[in-house]
Amino acid sequence: MSASSPKPTRAPHPMRADARRNYERILAAAEAVVARHGADASFEEIARTSGVGSATVYRHFPTRSALLEEVFHERVAALADRARVLADSGDARTVLTAWLGEVCSYLTSANGLAAALAMTDDTFKDPDTRSCFASLADAGAPLLQRAVEEGAARPSADIRDLLVLANGISLATEHHEDNAAEAQRLLLQFTEGIWSPARS
Fold first, then answer.
1. What values do phi and psi take at 38, rounded to 5?
2. What is the pLDDT of residue 198?
3. DSSP letter string, the chain
4. What's this model's pTM, rounded to 2 decimal places?
5. C-beta separation of 122 from 129 below 8 A
């Protein structure tokens, strides 16, 4: 997406018309810059691309993780929707494996998303902030719970652990020649540990 054609966004608070225009221009520019540079995208370059001052960028997004969360919100929302679609289809193990695979695919294809989820600054600790990670955990929890109830997964399995695993795999395979395939291979290998022995 270019900075000249911003899409509708989810501004966190009511804004004046000019502030909203700036917000949408910044977000559109951030998407383009993050696509090129990942989580290390420069606030200064984002400001130049959007045509606003750096202070305006920081006023809307006081931390890097706050900006990255907003940039990747739609991708994460799509994954959450996908979990709800899959919730009542197929056997629980297949469904959970498929969804985790899709999460891993998003993480390996979206430049900077895995690094954004790995950040642990105060924005992610704020209980009033709905982070990307929390959204994915909320969406995936029913899939894992169903697998536990059907006896496919161990009761000790935790969806947050699985998301941390998927995220770590995406970061570890970032520079692999075929990072998508390698990430999927490792995900299948390491998630073997959550399945109940009788069903593995």
1. 70, -155
2. 64
3. --TTSPPP---SS---HHHHHHHHHHHHHHHHHHHHHGGG--HHHHHHHHTS-HHHHHHH-SSHHHHHHHHTHHHHHHHHHHHHHHTTSS-HHHHHHHHHHHHHHHHHHSTTHHHHHH--SHHHH-TT---HHHHHHHHHHHHHHHHHHTTSB-TT--HHHHHHHHHHHHHHTTTSTTHHHHHHHHHHHHGGGGB-TTT-
4. 0.72
5. no
Q: Which domains does the chain have, with CATH numbers?
A: 17-62 (1.10.10), 72-194 (1.10.357.10)
Q: Which residues of the chain have pLDDT under 50?
A: 1-9, 121-124, 126-129
Strand partners, 195: 153
Which tens digit of pLDDT belongs to each residue from 76-95?
898 999 999 999 888 999 99
pLDDT of the residue at 8: 40
Q: How far is CA 74 from CA 8, 60, 68, 182, 192, in A?
A: 11, 18, 11, 25, 30
Q: Which of 17, 8, 30 is nearest to 112 (CA)?
A: 30
pLDDT at res. 187: 94
CB 77 within 8 A of CB 8: no
Sequence-distant (≥ 6) Cβ neighbours of residue 181 within 8 angstroms: none
